[in-house]
Design goal:
The structure holds three protein chains of three kinds. Chain B is an alpha/beta fold. Chain B has two domains: 138 residues, Rossmann fold (3-Layer(aba) Sandwich); 118 residues, HUPs (Rossmann fold, 3-Layer(aba) Sandwich). Chain B contains nine helices and 14 strands. In chain B, helix 1 runs parallel beside helix 2. In chain C, 66% of the residues lie in helices and 4% in strands. The longest helix of chain C is centred in the N-terminal third of the chain and has 35 residues. Classes of the chains: A alpha/beta, B alpha/beta, C mainly alpha.
Chain lengths: 242, 276, 578
């Protein structure tokens, strides 16, 4: 086989300078011919195994290799996209908005909130979620002040088919949520994520938004879902902007 | 990464001219000069498959106390930043330092061994030839007196090494912004054949962008034709070892060209790969 | 002429090369055989030259001015090396070791014959030195140049350098096993089948060439020895004695070398003076002159009839003569003087115990002379196997093997206590050039900063505000941020998160602090050409785990111990698998 030095170095995941030196020293079964590496695939694979290195599928020929590389990059991007936490808008759209939530105590509010969530197919899941939310509240209230609470499970719950989501709930009347600033809470953001990483990511974005006085004022007006999502989308853009 | 040029400095008027040429080249092509001020009469260069011992002529060791100051002055006068100096770290024998070879260019006078007074435009010294043959970098062989060049002239004969020289010529022309002209002494091949070679190496588009003119010499006598090469051009050409016998019979084109042209020469050896 | 070879390997390679290419071992064995023959011929050439010179001068040795002959020889040899060959003096073995450890055995063509001629001049005229080291160097250079001719890689070239050495040594002593063992033990330093096979073949070729042209002679034949346990016991004392003499010789060589360096005279004048001194000693004690094999032969045969005191004098005189020859610029090796001094020492020891315990029926004095040689060779070279096999082969005396092993082992051990590095390795170890495969020094010498530098660092500008920097920081997964000048692109300093952690959470500072104010401009940096050993030392001294790599005032990347471990391990595994 014949490959440019750089391609071979990438296939072996070794700096090109090292591969070059190994060829010169004769440590690797590869020869240099007019700047390109000539080797037998079989013996190089054997050599790599013996030396605890891995030989990734080297691309053959220059033009093809560029395509292969591009493919790989595309694949990586797809990977990334899957792994990358959603932005607020996506999570909030998943979670939906609930209005006129009943309840006067923390437990009641959580109970009705979980009960009205549409995306759980079995009552068992709702129970575990409710218990976990309650456990978290007992640890310390998630009422973060200014009338807002962000209830979330004590540990991330992975239901498999349910993505990261935020359910926004406007209470019928502001209730005492034992918030840090002792103010009654009027809106809750149920934050339910399959992983701690996504949880942190969304929480950071959410808390950034909630620091904005204008946004709080906007929430107090109890906006319609369309206006609400629109506003969130604009806030997301501010985040994603470089 | 930084491109670097190795210069062996001698602290004499001739050495000054040569360093001026080097510095001008460095400035035009944006290279950082690295200077070795010899402390011993000889040094070794370990290439990939050859080791070359360079025995300098005595003038390289003249006035060591002012050498560095002078070298910095000369390089600075060309508007370049302060050059680096090599202090040899390894010694094969106590008076025989090893000079590293991981450079992108090297500047050698026509002969590095013989007394400079003996050589005018004679032959390229055997050491310099060997450096050209073994090194992974091209060698700049400057003329005896400092003269800024205004264009790049590539000697193109169609061989693989000439293609390398053409590539380097294109690169230098692009980096320096100087026009490039190509000169060919046509043998049995026609202009179309040469164009085919260039297309085969995917150089046709670069050629269009950089090429000023492509001159095919008419006469059969290369030496006479070289008169057409401008006096203020940097001549880029390939060198390929043909073996002793062929060289004795036919002579080397490189030797012919360098014996006629007093221009700055940039010689591309068989081991050089132009970075793209 | 010198460029002839250089030109030769530019000739277009014919297709027969492809035939060999397919099997690495076959290639090495066949070229190794060629190298062995060539170096064997070179060794024989020197041998013939020495005989010729010896005969040339034997007629005039008795004149009073004969002491000038070694002087003239040494001066000529020094002039030849210095002016014509433009090489340094010395015996050359360290040079071979240096090129093997650092440059994959690349050697100059001229080394292939320069030492042969110069040592022929020195030894032939009577200087006290041996022809082995020059032969080793020529053999090595021949091997290296043949490897260059075939444009082989470093590993193959080192094998061929070994082949050259083995062939040359096997030819000059007619001792093929000693050739193999010396090469592996001293020159190559690792036992691997890939190396041993071509070296063995080369050794056979070298010895065969020698036998074809000179007949199968054993250098020092002797009578049959009947060795009793009491003799073996007495060998312990001999071993200690040879060890002491070895240390004396090593020190004498070093002192005379140092003295000579302090004298400000042209090299050839110094060599002349040293040679004359040797000549003067040799005028009264002719046994110290030249390689001295004649006296060894007498001693081993048991026909050397000198008294104890005289022999002690001879040991000292030979040490002084050798020190004068080699220390003052003559050209030659240490091997033959070792053998001579060793046999004198053995004889001396025999005379001594014979005097103290006259009643015991000691084995023939030749046996002790032989054991003394082994003791001294092992002591000086600190290569016990070489000592054992060489003596067995050059004397054909396998029956002495038990005391031989004993003497070699003890002598090596005792010498090691006084002189941690052997005569050949001493200079290299001092300069840190002694790089045996798979050692820490070798791995670090092979890796370069360029191979280790990590380039995924985020570079920040010097007039960036802390607030902006915090945002950059969020996106990076590294703790280091190099700071550059906006205009010139020059590297200015480094920001390490640990250093600025306290400011990071103070939004008040975000708009008021510029990176320029908080960067560390004193952070130690690394250049691309720096030696990794020194880089690591610097890291350890400053308790750092990573350092910025800066070339020509520009930031290139970071080098860290974590990556180093990764690459170090790769390198070690690869070297171990060769």
């Amino acid at each position: 086989m014949k490959l440019p030095l750089k391609e071979l170095a990438r296939a072996l995941n070794i700096p090109p300078a090292t591969v070059d030196r190994w060829i010169r020293q004769g440590s690797i079964p590869v020869r240099l011919k007019e700047g390109a590496c000539v080797f037998s695939r079989h013996s190089l694979e054997k050599w790599a195994r013996e030396n605890h290195l891995t030989l990734q599928e080297p691309a053959t020929g220059a033009p093809q290799s560029r395509e292969a590389h591009k493919d790989r990059e595309d694949g990586e991007n797809r990977e990334n996209r899957k792994d990358r936490p959603d932005n607020l808008e996506a999570a909030m759209t998943h979670g939906g908005v609930l209005y006129n939530l009943e309840g006067d105590t923390v437990a009641e509010i959580l109970k009705t909130g979980v009960a009205r969530m549409p995306f759980f197919d079995s009552p068992g899941k709702k129970d575990t979620l409710y218990e976990s939310l309650l456990a978290r509240e007992e640890l310390m209230s998630t009422g973060i002040g200014r009338g807002v609470a962000v209830p979330h499970p004590r540990t991330p719950l992975d239901y498999g088919d349910i993505p990261a989501l935020i359910t926004t709930c406007f209470l019928r009347h502001p209730a005492d949520y034992r918030a840090v600033d002792h103010k009654p809470v009027f809106v809750l953001f149920f934050l339910i994520c399959p992983s701690a990483r996504q949880h942190l990511h969304l929480l950071a974005r959410l808390s950034f938004c909630l620091r904005d006085d204008a946004f709080i004022a906007f929430l107090k007006e109890i906006p319609e879902p369309a206006a609400f999502f629109d506003r969130i989308a604009r806030l997301d853009q501010r985040f994603d902007a470089p | 990464m930084e491109t670097r040029l190795l210069h062996i400095f001698r602290n004499t008027p001739l050495g000054r001219e040569i360093l001026l040429q080097s510095s001008y080249f460095c400035r035009m092509v944006n290279i950082h000069p690295v200077i070795y001020v010899p402390q011993f009469i000889k040094f070794l260069m370990y290439f990939d498959n050859d080791v070359v011992q360079v025995d300098l002529d005595g003038s390289y060791l003249k006035a060591p106390e002012t050498a560095k100051v002078h070298a910095v002055e000369i390089v600075r006068s060309q508007g370049l930043p302060e050059p680096d100096f090599i202090e040899p770290k390894n010694f094969t024998a106590s008076t025989l330092p090893d000079i590293p070879v991981n450079f992108d260019f090297m500047c050698c006078p026509r002969s590095i061994t013989d007394l400079s007074s003996k050589i005018g435009l004679g032959y390229i010294g055997p050491r310099v030839r060997r450096i050209v043959q073994s090194a992974a970098f091209p060698v700049l062989i400057p003329g005896a007196v400092y003269k800024p060049w205004k264009s790049v002239a590539v000697m193109f004969g169609g061989s693989a090494n000439a293609v390398n020289a053409l590539r380097l010529g294109i690169r230098i022309s692009r980096l320096s912004g100087m026009p490039m002209n190509v000169y060919t002494q046509p043998g049995r091949r026609s202009r179309q054949d040469y164009e085919k070679i260039i297309a085969a190496y995917h150089l046709d588009r670069d050629m269009e962008r950089c090429l000023g003119k492509w001159e095919f010499f008419d006469g059969p006598d290369l030496e006479a034709n070289l008169y057409h090469v401008p006096h203020d051009a940097l001549v880029v050409m390939g060198a390929y070892g043909h073996g002793v016998i062929r060289e004795m019979l036919f002579g080397s084109v490189m030797e012919k060209v360098q014996a006629v042209l007093p221009n700055n020469l940039l010689i591309v050896g068989p081991k050089y790969q132009v970075p793209m | 002429m010198m460029d002839f070879l250089a030109c030769l390997h530019k000739i277009k390679r014919p297709s027969w090369r492809i035939l060999f290419r397919f099997d690495d071992r076959l290639l090495l064995i066949s070229i190794g055989a060629l190298v062995g023959c060539c170096s064997g011929l070179a060794a024989l050439g020197l041998n013939r030259g020495l005989i010729f010179m010896f005969e040339l001068f034997s007629g005039i040795r008795h004149f009073w001015w004969a002491f000038l002959i070694p002087g003239a020889g040494a001066a000529l040899s020094s002039l030849f090396l210095e002016k014509i060959m433009k090489e340094g003096a010395g015996h050359g073995v360290p040079e071979v070791l240096y090129s093997v450890s650092r440059y994959g055995g690349l050697m100059r063509f001229r080394s292939g014959f320069s030492r042969l001629i110069s040592s022929c001049l020195t030894i032939g005229s009577g200087g006290s030195a041996g022809p082995e080291a020059p032969v080793v160097m020529s053999g090595a250079a021949i091997g290296s140049n043949i490897a260059q001719l075939f444009s082989l890689n470093d590993r193959q070239r080192v094998s061929l350098v070994g082949c050259g050495t083995a062939g040359a040594l096997a030819a000059i002593f007619n001792a093929p096993i000693a050739g193999i063992v010396f090469t592996i033990e001293v020159i190559i330093g690792e036992w691997s089948a890939l190396n041993i096979v071509p070296i063995a073949v080369a050794s056979v070729c070298g010895a065969q060439v020698c036998r074809l042209l000179q007949g199968n002679q054993i250098a020092f034949t002797h009578l049959k020895f009947g060795i009793d346990p009491v003799d073996t016991a007495a060998c312990m004392g001999l071993a200690v004695t040879t060890a002491i003499v070895s240390v004396m010789l090593t020190r004498a060589l070093r002192i005379s070398g140092r003295r000579a360096r302090r004298v400000r005279l042209p090299l050839w004048v110094k060599a002349f003076a040293g040679g004359c001194a040797v000549g003067a000693i040799g005028f009264f004690l002719p046994d110290v002159l030249g390689e001295g094999y004649h006296s060894i032969r007498q001693m081993v045969e048991g026909t050397f009839s000198a008294g104890l005191l005289f022999v002690v004098g001879l040991v000292l005189a030979k040490i002084v003569a050798t020190a004068f020859t080699l220390g003052w610029g003559g050209s030659g090796g240490i091997f033959a003087p070792c053998l001579v001094i060793g046999s004198f020492t053995g004889l001396m020891y025999h005379r001594f115990i014979d005097m103290i315990w006259p009643g015991v029926a000691w084995v023939n004095e030749g046996c002790f002379a032989l054991l003394g040689m082994a003791g001294l060779v092992s002591g000086i070279l600190q290569a016990p196997l070489t000592g054992i096999f060489l003596i067995v082969e050059i004397t054909g005396g396998y029956e002495v093997i038990l005391p031989l092993i004993l003497v070699s082992a003890i002598s090596t051990t005792v010498c090691h206590a006084f002189e941690p590095a052997s005569f050949y390795f001493k200079d290299l170890v001092e300069k840190g050039y002694f790089l045996r495969p798979r050692t820490d020094a070798r791995v670090l010498a092979d890796l370069s900063v360029t191979e280790l530098v990590e380039k995924d660092c985020m570079v920040v500008k010097k007039d960036m505000k802390l607030g902006d920097f915090v945002r950059v920081m969020q996106k990076s997964h590294r703790n280091f941020f190099p700071v550059e000048d906006e205009k010139s692109g020059e590297y200015l300093g480094l920001i390490h998160l640990d250093d600025i952690r306290e400011y990071l959470f103070d939004p008040l500072l975000y708009e008021t602090v510029f990176l320029e104010q908080i960067m560390d401009t004193q952070a130690p940096t690394v250049g691309l050409d720096d030696d990794l050993v020194q880089v690591l030392d610097r890291m350890d001294a400053a308790h750092l785990f990573s350092m910025p790599v800066v070339a020509n005032n520009r930031f290139v990347g970071m080098i860290s111990k974590a990556t180093l471990l990764d690459k170090y391990r790769n390198e070690l595994i690869v070297q171990a698998h060769q």
